[in-house]
Design a protein that fits this description.
The chain is of the alpha/beta class. It folds into two domains: 159 residues, 3-Layer(aba) Sandwich (Aspartate Aminotransferase, domain 2); 148 residues, Alpha-Beta Complex (Aspartate Aminotransferase, domain 1). It is built from 16 helices and 14 strands. The strands form four sheets. Strands 1-8-7-6-5-2-4 form a seven-stranded mixed beta sheet, sandwiched between helices. A three-stranded antiparallel beta sheet has the order 9-10-12. Strands 3-11 form a two-stranded antiparallel ribbon. α4 links the parallel β5 and β6. The radius of gyration is 20 Å and the shape is globular. The protein starts with 6 loop residues before the first strand and ends with a strand. The C terminus is likely disordered.
């Protein structure tokens, strides 16, 4: 059966993951291994179902886990592996798939950041997002593909019992993000940046808050909806009419920015620079002076940020995260996340040195070059990163 016939159209990847775990009969305290850098809503959903998330560290250059590290984490309680494909790239998963089959584990692949125009299935489940800032956005919606027909039927039956998202809710979402797009235009965005310096919340924190899909309370009530008819229609149209040249353009622009930075300062580390077939969905660099660099780039009109919904999943210990903070807000403030060691040294290193640069914006290539030259001039390269081992130096 083609992957397109195994699809379930969901409100979000979070909704699909919640559906999927609702249909598992695993004992409580069963463990799910996650690639350790992901949105914290995913392990939050696992906890809600009584399962324990366990993070595995990533290679900084490729953003992939070592297969022996995953093997070391497998116990009799382990039931699944969740692999997040990050930064627009795709991890090689053949070895992970073999390991999953060897231990009878469920393999779930999260392609939320890595859609390239195809819906496909390589493990047991694949999830694709079409949210606000995703490739080929429909301002919401996701597609989940499930290989097991009986499981898929149970998930569909449960999904059909969920209430449907209202048309008004989706209309408000469209209005909200058109407003965000409007205020992101050059002259207006510059004024907002200057104004935000006098406010308690910084510009990038404000922008990150506006972009959250399920902010506020009643998180599980919000995700447990079917997509509205307009959203389903928009999602189907976006998938059917995807323009692959948009990704080709983004790759060209990302490579131009990468080359400009490296030509000016070859010591600067570009996050995931060795990812196979990188598409630069987002563009991250690791520097010693992230806050200062962001301020300099703002001053020159570039919306760099350190804010991200990506955070670390603690290694073997949920208690390492502040429990009340996780319950109140599944995306921890960057300050708290950076001050709370996860036991995953590479991911901790990433989060404490990361700056995102705007690459997929309607700016001329001359501006990309100017931004790259500013980065090369003002960024301080990280000094305690050992590229040969992708680990901290002691």
């Amino acid at each position: 059966m083609p992957a397109s016939q195994k699809c379930i159209m969901c409100l979000s990847v979070r909704s699909g993951f919640d559906l999927l775990l609702s249909e598992q009969d695993w004992p409580e305290t069963s463990e799910i291994i996650f690639t350790g850098l992901t949105i914290l809503d995913m392990p939050r959903i696992a906890r809600q179902h009584g399962f324990r998330p366990v993070g595995v560290d990533l290679d900084i250059s490729k953003l992939e886990p070592a297969i022996d590290e995953i093997q070391r984490l497998v116990t009799p309680r382990t039931k699944a592996i969740v692999v997040a494909h990050l930064m627009g790239g795709r991890l090689p998963t053949s070895e992970i798939s073999k390991l999953a089959k060897q231990h009878d584990l469920f393999l779930i692949e999260d392609f939320a950041q890595s859609y390239r125009g195809q819906i496909f299935l390589s493990g047991d489940v694949a999830m694709f997002s079409f949210g606000t800032i995703k490739t080929n956005t429909a301002l919401g919606g996701a597609v989940m593909v499930i290989s097991d027909s009986k499981l898929r039927e149970r998930v569909v039956n449960r999904h059909d019992r969920w209430p449907r998202q209202s048309r008004l809710h989706y209309a408000k979402r469209i209005l909200k993000y058109n407003l965000i797009k409007f205020i992101s235009t050059r002259p207006l965005a510059g004024s907002i940046r200057r104004t935000c310096r006098f406010l308690p919340r910084q510009h990038d924190s404000l922008a990150a808050g506006m972009a959250k899909s399920f902010s506020g309370g009643d998180f599980f009530k919000k995700i447990r909806h079917r997509p509205s008819a307009p959203l389903s229609h928009t999602l189907a149209q976006r998938i059917a009419n995807f323009q692959p040249q948009s990704i080709d353009c983004r790759i060209r622009r990302g490579q131009l920015l990468s080359d400009t930075i490296k030509n000016g300062n070859p010591e600067i580390k570009i996050l995931g620079e060795d990812i196979e077939q990188a598409t630069y969905w987002i563009f991250g660099i690791l520097v010693q002076n992230p806050r200062k660099l962001i301020e300099i780039l703002w001053q020159h009109g570039f919306d760099a940020t350190s804010q991200s919904s990506l955070q670390a999943i603690p290694f073997r210990s949920d208690e390492r995260l502040h429990p009340t903070a996780v319950q109140a807000n599944p995306v921890l403030p960057s300050e708290l996340a950076q001050e709370t060691p996860s036991g995953l040294p590479n991911i901790d290193f990433i989060l404490s040195h990361l700056v995102f640069l705007p690459v997929d914006l309607p700016m001329p290539e001359s501006e990309l070059i100017r931004m790259g030259e500013l980065v090369a001039r003002h960024a301080i390269p990280t000094t305690n990163f050992d590229a040969s081992r992708t680990k901290f130096r002691s």
